[in-house]
């Protein structure tokens, strides 16, 4: 029985999260959480929270062996981009793009 968790509008670029997400795909959940704990990236902390949420969702289903769960799928999509303007010298203005991402993690039993 598979369970999933979705985090939307996370304030980090999807490209940065995908660097970490590709490392945990297909791993057992316990091993993936351990790897994320010692990964020094902002995306690792966000992914671990979503993975804990997916784990809790699996526990709520009933009849699921939590120790036998593995990360079936990790999907990171781009969310909406916040557009901001930075004033610069001599009346110029530079555009700042604050990117967001949507993260989906699916866990399943082996």
Give a verbal description of the structure.
- This protein has 3 helices and 5 strands.
- α1 (14-24) packs across α3 (42-61) and α2 packs antiparallel against α3 (42-61).
- It has a single domain, classed as Alpha-Beta Complex (Ribosomal Protein L22, Chain A), CATH 3.90.470.
- The model has no long low-confidence stretch (mean pLDDT 94).
- Strands 1-5-2 form a 3-stranded antiparallel sheet. The chain has a two-stranded antiparallel sheet with strand order 3-4.
- 36% of the residues lie in helices and 35% in strands.
- It has helices at residues 14-24, 29-37, 42-61, and strands at residues 3-10, 69-78, 82-87, 93-98, 101-109.
- With 110 residues, the protein is of the alpha+beta class.
């Amino acid at each position: 029985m598979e369970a999933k968790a979705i985090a939307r509008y996370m304030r980090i670029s999807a490209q940065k999260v995908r660097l970490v997400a590709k490392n945990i795909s297909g791993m057992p959940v316990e091993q993936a959480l351990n790897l994320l704990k010692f990964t020094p990236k902002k995306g690792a902390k966000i992914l671990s929270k979503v993975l804990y949420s997916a784990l809790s969702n699996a526990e709520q289903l009933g009849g699921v062996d939590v120790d036998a769960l593995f990360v079936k799928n990790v999907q990171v999509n781009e969310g909406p981009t916040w557009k901001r303007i930075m004033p610069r010298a001599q009346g110029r203005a530079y555009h700042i793009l604050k990117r967001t991402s949507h993260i989906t993690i699916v866990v399943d039993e082996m």
